[in-house]
Amino acid sequence: MMFKAVGDSRPYPEHGITTPRDWAGIPPRQVRLDQLVTTKSQLDLRSLLSSDSTFYGDLFAHVVSWRGTLYLEDGLHRALRAALQQRLVLHARILELDDAGNPVS
Prior knowledge:
- A hairpin with a 2-residue loop joins strand 4 and strand 5 (69-74).
- The protein has three helices and six strands.
- It has a six-stranded mixed beta sheet.
- It has helices at 20-24, 45-49, 76-84, and strands at residues 5-6, 28-32, 36-38, 61-66, 69-74, 89-97.
- It is of the alpha/beta class.
- The protein has one domain (5-10, 28-97): Conserved hypothetical protein from pyrococcus furiosus pfu- 392566-001, ParB domain (Alpha-Beta Complex), CATH 3.90.1530.
- The longest helix has 9 residues, at 76-84.
- The mean pLDDT is 88.
């Protein structure tokens, strides 16, 4: 299995980290693909196959850690591309939330 699970929504509370500038303050780390739960079950194939799909966005996927689970919030196409290249890890910015959904410093 490529991912730990395939989800269809964000089960964690709204965290307020929305802009690229907000996410840029979180240093990227490596995360194993098989530890991620997706928050989207569908992907636009054009995004996956586009050579410049990250040109206007963050180079790193966005992951939310909540209640011991890592949720892939943004970057599904990056994760799938990594899997197709037979890589087991993905570089991502990981936002850690407490049980109430507040960002942990």
